[in-house]
Amino acid sequence: MKKFYPLLLVTLLATTVVFAQDGKKKKKPSGSYNKQNKETEQFLEKQWWIGLKGGPNLTKTTVEKIYNVIIPTNYEPGEISKEYDNFKQLGSQISLEITFFFKQVSLSFQPTYQHARFKYTSTYEWIDTEVQSNYLEMRYDQEVKLDHLQLPLLAKYEFSGGALRPYVQFGVYSAILLNATKSVEVSGTDYASGGANEFENEPVIVGVTDQFAKNHWGLIGGAGLYYNLGNVRLNFDVMYKYGMSNISSTENRYDNDRLSGVGDVMDDLTMDNLSVSIGCLFPMRFLGNNFKSLNRK
After folding, report:
1. Rounded CA Rg of the chain
2. Structural domains in the chain (count)
3. What is the pLDDT of residues 15-48, one digit of tens each?
4. Exposure winner among 1, 86, 125, 150, fewest CB in 10 A?
5. Which among 217, 218, 185 has a CA at the least distance from the CA of 204?
């Protein structure tokens, strides 16, 4: 029997080595899995996003103080105040969005080129004090187009969800004036010749960049929706910008002779803007193609 002891000992040692090697091989997948899982969590909970978005906007103006070129002598100036058409003229905007996301909260910087439009109307009457049937009605229709570079800084809170993830956002913005133009159409009815003679003049179109403030600022509020598609995000958002400062130039109000000649001068205004945008965001930290984005949660 003793001659079998060495053989038995060799067999036990060989078996021990085989199990030890099998154990080491099983630990490798576990370590690899933990590493991949850690990368996934970093992608899900902390990420830089960059992309473009754009869409239409509508503008509202609020009059802080009224100014007129023509001052009436027989009635109050307030009776010829301008009528503004709010949220009726369609503009547009395009934004570069750079967002840092961390556990449902994001900080977003969104440089934006915004083209905004608004209109207002003034009406005047001239009456012959001796023959009151002789009078003249005049209507001035002004359309303003403004181009700004806006620099919004926003905080977002993202609600938990699957592929669809709604969010709310708040922030501030500063705007730099790039260009401004104004079109003035003059029309009316002349009753002085014994009949009603309607007329309409060719529109006066002028550059009015110096008639507006070089900078203004405001507050932002809004909401949106992300749709996670693979490793990218499709974005839909609605944003309301509430102007806090005067957009008109107080120094150059009467400097444009062509506008003053047709009875136009800018009021002190603040400007609100309602915009809708769609876009696409790409992550700056990528995972492999086999990983399908944030909809894992």
Report:
1. 34
2. 1
3. 444 444 444 444 445 555 455 555 555 566 788 9
4. 1
5. 185
